[in-house]
Structures are given as C-alpha cells and as structure tokens.
Amino acid sequence: MLRSLVRESCVHSWRNFGPDGDLEGLRAWENQLRPTEIFFFYLEEGGSRQLIAAGAVASKLARDFPHEGFSVLGRCYILPEFRGRGLYRSLLRYRLEFCRDDGGAELKAIHIGSTDPRIARVLRDHRIPDWPRFVHLGHEALTVAREVRRVEAYLLLLPAYARRLRELLTGDGAPPSVAELRDALGDLERPELRDLGLLADRAVEDGMKQGFFDCRDIGELEQLLCFCRAIPLVGLVPAEVARA
Hints:
single chain; alpha+beta; six-stranded mixed β-sheet; disordered C terminus; elongated
C-alpha cells in the first residue's frame, strides 16, 4: 500500500512515511503526532482476502491539544484498482461510527481535510443515516513530501454541540457577524455555507469588542476557535499569538 501511495501525486500525509515502512512503524509514526487508530479494509472474494483500503481516526488533533471532544478522520487510502466502486462512503460511515463509540457523550465535532472534489461532494452530501453533513471550515496548509499544499478543511458538528453554540449567540444587540454565525449554525445543511471557522473568529472578535459577550460564558465557542487555530486554518492568528 505504501509503495502504491508514493507513486501518486496526491496530498496524503502517509507519503511522508516512505515506501519501506511496516505496520508497526506506521502506527508508531502516527501516534507520535496524536493518539490514532488505523483500520485496514479487505475484500473477501472466491476464498481469498485482499487489502483494498486503510483509514485512520484520531481522538485528538494533536497530543497536546487541550480540549476533548474533537475527533479527526485522518489518512484514508483506497488502492487504485478498487476506486470508482463507491467504497469511500462506507469507509466514512465506519470511521464516523468509531468516533461516536469512542467519544461518547463528550464528542462535539469531527474534522477531515481533502483536496479531492469527489471527496468534498461526499462530505457535503454523504446521505449516511443519523449523521449531519460536514460544513466547510476553511483552508489548511498541509506539508506533504516536503511540499506545502492547500487543503479544504471540513467539520461535522454534532447537533447538540451546534445547538449549544447557537444558544451562546442569541439575544438582542448581536453584532452582524454574530447574527450571521448564529444563523449559519441553525442551518448547517446549506451547500453554499463556507469558511465557518473564519466566520466564528470574526464573530468572537466583534462580540468581544462590542461587549456582547461580557456576561456570557463562551468557553465552548473559544474551544472551537482553539481547534481551528491548531489545525491551523489559513487566515487565523496562531494560538500562541492570540494569547499574547
């Protein structure tokens, strides 16, 4: 699988690992970055079993990320000969269900990044029962094989979490950006909704300046921004600068 991957010109972080590694090395490499589970998917046909894909799920964005409840759908790779069979949606569903089982009641949101328009279409309209769609969060700069590539960042917000965020933004006197974020959180299924992370950053900044958040505990909203900065989203001030 790794040998197949390095032959492709794609934005895939496992290309950083190299073609000569083994499973234990791959697991160790992933878990240096963040606590990660790797799943391998096989096709059983005619009495034989063949590897068709692999996918990773991380319970945190990074080992030192301070907030719980933000899972990450990491690397996913389908071998070239098995593409075009509609497998990605099934792999996505399996990993989403794992996130729910692993995160339990603390799960707030699930992040994924992709440059593939086909994957983006699935994320925005995956039609997996009992799961909301992913919303476009912004762009991230990902280093792959020594090149920095621009990646579309997406986030699936669990309904209870989106509802709590929206409740933080209710009330009279909300700045326009706060009202816009509140409306966006109330209709995350809108296909034209983009750059939610940048909107959240702008809303918090405006709300703080105008005193809208003076008597409100916006801890959960600040956690979302902390997550966006840690990705990091292009256009957001890095976390260490924001704290200065």
